[in-house]
Amino acid sequence: MDAVRVALLREVLAGTQWPGAARRFAGSLRRSVAPAGGNLLLVGTEQYEPWHLAAHLVDEAAWSGLPELAPTLVRHRVPAGEPPHLSVGLGRLEAARRGHTLLVVAPEPPGEGLLQRVHDARRAGATVLSLDGGDPDLGALAHEALSVAEGSGELDLDTVQHLVSAAAGENSLPAQRGPRRFRDRLARLADQLTAPPPSRW
Q: Quick one: pLDDT band at residue 149, thresholds 50, 70, 90?
């Protein structure tokens, strides 16, 4: 979802909790990754891999000048022949410790195995954030959670991920004054609008 669509979505959602909630969550994400750098682990459930969020965070990391936002995608199953950046299995969570941030995306209940790994990472000192469907066990483990209850009639979790990833790259650097900052933003917007549709990250 490009910057224009995100802006339109925020306009549609003005007066609801979602734009502010997404910005607060994104702020927590930025604060947790900024001191450590390069230690953001992103994991979904066995049924759901957060490809789109991973790709958007990589983009926001590049555009915002915050490389720490680029996550390591941790996968439940790694097919043979995948490139190195798509070959990180669940064992990576066992190395999570203080200075690491674990972002869990779970539209459905995450399952006991993942919950235990998240619990162990938290006990080892990792910061746990969750975008979820309202699972109480995952919510209890997370330092910060943003939940979208299934069938709530509001937004779905995919849309909330777009809001969060867009907000994560905002205001991450001291604002530059003058025309250069404005030209940079225009150039970035033009690149987004003319880019081809994204392929699998």
A: confident
Q: Output the six-digit token pair for 8.
A: 């339109």
Q: Which residue has the higher pLDDT, 173 or 18?
A: 18
Computed on alpha carbons and rounded to an integer, the radius of gyration of the chain in Å comes to 17
Comparing CA positions, the residue from 33, 15, 186 lying closest to residue 103 is: 33
pLDDT of amino acid 150: 73
43-62 burial: b if 16+ Cβ within 10 Å, else e: bbbeeebbebbbbbbbbbbe
Which residue shows structure tokens 């555009």? Answer: 63
- CA–CA distances in Å: residue 3 to residues 7, 9, 25, 68: 6, 10, 19, 21
Per-chain mean pLDDT for the chain: 84
- CA 163/CA 160 separation, integer angstroms: 5
Which structure tokens are listed for 61? 């990391």
Residue 126: pLDDT band (50, 70, 90) is very high
Domains and CATH numbers, the chain: 3-194 (3.40.50.10490)
Alpha helix (H) ranges present in the chain?
Answer: 3-12, 18-33, 51-64, 112-123, 136-141, 157-168, 179-194
Strand order in the sheet with 40-43: 72-74, 40-43, 101-106, 127-132, 144-147
- DSSP conformational letter for 88: -
